[in-house]
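Structure first, sequence second, as always.
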């Protein structure tokens, strides 16, 4: 049997081992709705009430509330994958409701996120539902304006400072080009619902109080959300290959990290740290991800990162196709000086080298 056949057989076996966890438990889903949305609404009101005491207390309560927004987003996320409820309509309804609470249109994000899963780690199919990633060769071959734009985009203050506003307030308010009617209508429904909800809150407590309460909750939840998405694919020895070499299972297990968080943070983030399990099978509900990981020994080999080691990912900016790892801008600058890089241009699935 060839190495390719062996690899394919192992991948099929891995999918079989995780299959028993691709099931929805109604009681667990309802329990999660209750222990997520009730505390979220309670904390939001507590943050408002705390304005009469101290704004520092409001911010502290707001940070805790933002964790429950993340947990609400995980419910939304599972609805998009059809794994939170068995019924398709129930997933769509709850996905739309939680999408309003998290500022994300259900149908729009369902499509883009499905594309992310289908192409994660594929160098020839980057662009939709992903963080912008350039290879070393692409960066070197880029004109100055593109390099500046990329460095600006990848700067932590931009990605995690402006990112929550740019993504959750601006980007998701508009439909993608080519969106079907049902998707466009869902975006309109989400936008209108958000306007109505926040208009009522402004009328009830005043726009100043609304901004003081909801501002920190929105910003912190957006920051944490972008961080989770970033860190679970942006680790040093991640997985990226061209189309002809790309493997869905390898992209899931090798290109998605196991973000080992303290138990309270694991709970508040809906077990999404078991990202390798999720990418291997999006049909596994968030409350079964840990069980699936523990019961499947091959998954224990996934790259494990912790709160401390995950901070290193802020240094990684470009993917080195030769070394198969992320590198820093400084490392690339040193290579250019020593002429260890021959710039290339990527066109579709082909790579064309420039003459030096």
């Amino acid at each position: 049997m060839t190495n390719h056949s062996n690899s394919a057989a192992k991948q099929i076996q891995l999918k079989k081992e995780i299959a028993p966890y691709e099931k929805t438990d109604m009681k667990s889903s309802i329990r999660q709705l209750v222990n997520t949305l009730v505390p979220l609404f309670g904390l939001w009101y507590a943050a408002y009430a705390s304005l009469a005491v101290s704004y520092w207390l409001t911010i502290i309560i707001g940070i805790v509330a933002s964790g429950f927004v993340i947990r609400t987003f995980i419910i939304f996320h599972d609805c998009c994958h059809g794994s939170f409820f068995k019924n398709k309509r129930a997933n769509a309804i709850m996905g739309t409701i939680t999408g309003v609470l998290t500022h994300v249109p259900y149908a729009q994000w369902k499509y883009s996120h499905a594309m992310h899963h289908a192409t994660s780690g594929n160098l020839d199919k980057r662009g939709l539902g992903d963080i912008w990633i350039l290879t070393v060769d692409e960066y070197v071959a880029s004109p100055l304006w593109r390099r500046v734009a990329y460095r600006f985009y990848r700067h932590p203050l931009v990605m995690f400072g402006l990112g929550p506003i740019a993504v959750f307030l601006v980007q998701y308010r508009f439909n993608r080009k080519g969106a079907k009617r049902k998707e466009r209508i869902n975006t309109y429904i989400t936008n209108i619902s958000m306007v109505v909800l926040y208009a009522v809150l402004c009328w009830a407590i005043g726009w100043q109080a609304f901004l003081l309460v909801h501002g920190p909750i929105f910003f912190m939840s957006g920051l944490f959300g972008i961080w989770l998405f970033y860190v679970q694919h942006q680790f040093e020895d991640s997985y990226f290959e061209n189309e002809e070499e790309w493997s869905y299972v390898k992209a899931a297990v090798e290109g998605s990290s196991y973000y080992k968080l303290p138990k309270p943070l694991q709970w508040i983030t809906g077990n999404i740290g078991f990202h390798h399990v999720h990418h291997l099978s999006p049909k596994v509900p968030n409350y079964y991800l840990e069980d699936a990981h523990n019961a499947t020994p091959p998954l224990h080999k996934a790259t494990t990162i912790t709160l401390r080691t995950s901070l290193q990912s802020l240094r990684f900016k470009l993917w080195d196709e030769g070394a198969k790892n992320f590198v820093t801008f400084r490392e690339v600058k040193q290579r250019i000086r020593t002429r260890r890089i021959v710039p290339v241009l990527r066109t579709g699935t082909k790579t064309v080298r420039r003459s030096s």
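Margin note: The two ends are 43 Å apart (CA to CA).
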